[in-house]
Structure formats: structure tokens, C-alpha cells
Design brief:
This protein folds into two domains: about 45 residues; about 250 residues, no CATH class. By secondary structure, the protein is mainly alpha-helical. It is about 80% helix and about 0% strand.
């Protein structure tokens, strides 16, 4: 063993083996060149202001079992192909009611003025004037008598005649209040008579005729649009009924998937086997199976199928609505 080791030392000695010497010098030169290159690279990295960016390692994400976000999908709605016509019918109905209200107001104004009897008003005004004249005459008589009592009181008994004057003053006040009330009623009747005389029956009746003609025009337009709406509704009924059924089933599946997604979140949040078992039991009680993932895959397949059917039925309905003039 010692002989072999001695021979290896002799073989590696450059002084005794020329070939080994050449190999030794070549290895030494390569080592010096490699060391110079590394030191230059390190100095370059230290002197550079911006650090060297190394490529990020590629991370492969686990593929999602369902690329569509069914849990956040909104419910589908049934397109309303007759909305424009229905809105027009509702607008015309509103115009009809407004015009009808205007006609009723005009007719009531004419009839209320026709109910005013000018001869009766004149008679009541004259009667009130007689009452006013009577009150004025009584007031004048009492004032004159009160003056007499005042004069006699200065000569005879001031106290007795003073009481009589107070009584007469109360009567004067009552007569004046009655006269004021009568004059107010008379002024109201005079204003009513003036309004009745100034009312232009011919102009109001002409306005009423124009309003009734406008009401008839609105009614004809409303009936035409209503008939058009009924016709288009009948032509679109079969298409809409199919979309309604598909929409109902599709929204039901979406609701079911949302519930299963909540169960899946509860499973992921469960801390132990007991919590997951409770979630599986709730799922089984509601859907007849406790396998949340399997139910989700089944529901996703139904949603995809019903979504495709929904889009197909909507396209068919749009083509038919365009053919009969509902859509441009």
C-alpha cells in the first residue's frame, strides 16, 4: 500500500514526470483565469446602481374545477319584447284620464253657473237691503232716543237715565252687528251675480266640445295601441312561455349552486371531522346527498345546458319579434 502511494506521489511530481507537470501548469492557469473572472464579476455587481433581476421561478397553479363563477352569476330575466307598445298604451291611458278630468272640470263649471238663478239673487239682494234699511232706521231711532235720555238725565235723575242710555247703547251695537252681517251676505250675492253675468257660456261650451274631440282622439289611439299590444302578445306568447320555463329552471339551479357553494365554504372552514360531518348532513337533508362536490358538478352541467337553451330561445324570440316589427 505504501508503495502504491509513493508511486502516485512520484507520478504527480512535475519534476519527475513531464506530462504531469504540463497538466499541473494547465490546471493552475485555468484556475487563475477562473478566479480573475469571478472577481471581476463580483466587482461589477457591487459597483452597479441597480441590482441584477433574476427571473422568477415558474409556479403552476392548480386548475380550477369550474372556470365559470356560477356562485356570483345573476339570475336570468325574461325579455320584454312588447315593452314599447305597453308603455305607449299606459301613456295614452294617462292622457285619457287627464283629459277626462279637464272635461269634467269644464262641465262642472258650466253647470254650476247654470244653476245660478239671477232673479232669485236679485230678490235676495233686495230683501237683504230692506233688512239693512230696517236696522239702520232702528239704529237711528235708538240713537235719537238715547240723546233725549242724556238731556233729561242732566235735568232729572242722572243715574236712572244713565242706565237707560247703556241699554240703548247695547241695542245699537247689536243692530250694527246685524247690519254688518247682512251687508256681507249682500256683497257675496252681488259678487255671485256679477260672476254669473260675466260668464261666457258660448266660449265655455266651445272649449268643452274641443276637449271632448281631443278625448275621442286619445281614445281611438289608445284602442289601436291596445289591440296592437294584444296581437303582438299573442304572437310572442309561445316564445315567451318557453323562455319563462327555462328561466325558472335555470334560476333554480343557480340558487342551488349558491347553496352548495356555501356548504363548500363551510367544509373548508371546518376545523375537524365532526364539523365536516355536520355540513354533509345538512347537505344531505336538503339535497338528498351529502357529496357537495358531486352535486356541484351535476348542477354546473345543468346550468351550462340550461344557459345554452336560454340563449337559443332568446335568439329565436328576437328573430320572430324582428320579423313581426317589434324590434328594429
Amino acid at each position: 500500500m505504501s508503495d502504491i502511494f509513493a508511486k502516485m506521489i512520484v507520478a504527480a511530481d512535475p519534476r519527475r514526470n513531464p506530462a504531469a507537470g504540463l497538466f499541473y501548469r494547465a490546471a493552475s492557469d485555468f484556475g487563475r483565469l477562473l478566479g480573475d473572472a469571478c472577481s471581476g464579476l463580483f466587482s461589477l455587481c457591487e459597483s452597479s446602481s441597480s441590482p441584477i433581476s433574476y427571473p422568477e421561478p415558474i409556479r403552476y397553479a392548480k386548475p380550477s374545477p369550474s372556470p365559470l363563477h356560477y356562485a356570483t352569476m345573476s339570475h336570468r330575466s325574461v325579455p320584454d319584447y312588447t315593452r314599447c307598445i305597453r308603455d305607449d298604451v299606459a301613456r295614452l291611458c294617462g292622457e285619457y284620464r287627464a283629459q277626462e278630468k279637464v272635461i269634467n272640470e269644464t262641465r262642472e263649471r258650466i253647470e254650476s253657473h247654470e244653476r245660478i238663478d239671477l232673479r232669485q239673487l236679485d230678490s235676495e239682494i233686495k230683501q237683504l237691503q230692506n233688512e239693512i234699511d230696517r236696522c239702520q232706521s232702528s239704529e237711528n231711532s235708538i240713537i235719537e232716543l238715547r240723546g233725549q235720555y242724556r238731556a233729561e238725565g242732566m235735568v232729572r235723575n242722572v243715574f236712572v237715565y244713565g242706565l237707560r242710555q247703556c241699554s240703548l247703547s247695547r241695542k245699537v251695537r247689536k243692530l250694527r252687528e246685524e247690519k254688518t252681517t247682512l251687508m256681507a251676505r249682500q256683497d257675496a250675492l252681488k259678487s255671485l251675480a256679477d260672476m254669473r253675468n260675466a260668464f261666457d257660456f258660448s266660449a265655455e261650451r266651445h272649449r268643452l266640445n274641443m276637449q271632448e274631440e281631443e278625448l275621442s282622439t286619445i281614445l281611438q289611439r289608445w284602442r289601436g295601441q291596445a289591440a296592437k299590444f294584444n296581437s303582438f302578445s299573442l304572437q310572442m306568447r309561445s316564445f315567451v312561455d318557453r323562455i319563462v320555463d327555462t328561466t325558472r329552471r335555470l334560476n333554480c339551479q343557480i340558487d342551488k349552486y349558491n347553496t352548495l357553494s356555501r356548504y363548500e365554504a363551510e367544509l373548508n372552514a371546518a376545523s375537524g371531522a365532526y364539523g365536516r360531518r355536520l355540513v354533509h348532513k345538512k347537505c344531505e337533508a336538503e339535497f338528498g346527498s351529502g357529496s357537495v362536490g358531486r352535486l356541484q358538478n351535476r348542477v354546473v352541467a345543468h346550468i351550462r345546458s340550461l344557459s345554452s337553451l336560454y340563449d337559443k330561445q332568446v335568439r329565436q324570440a328576437e328573430r320572430h319579434a324582428r320579423a313581426i316589427g317589434l324590434l328594429a
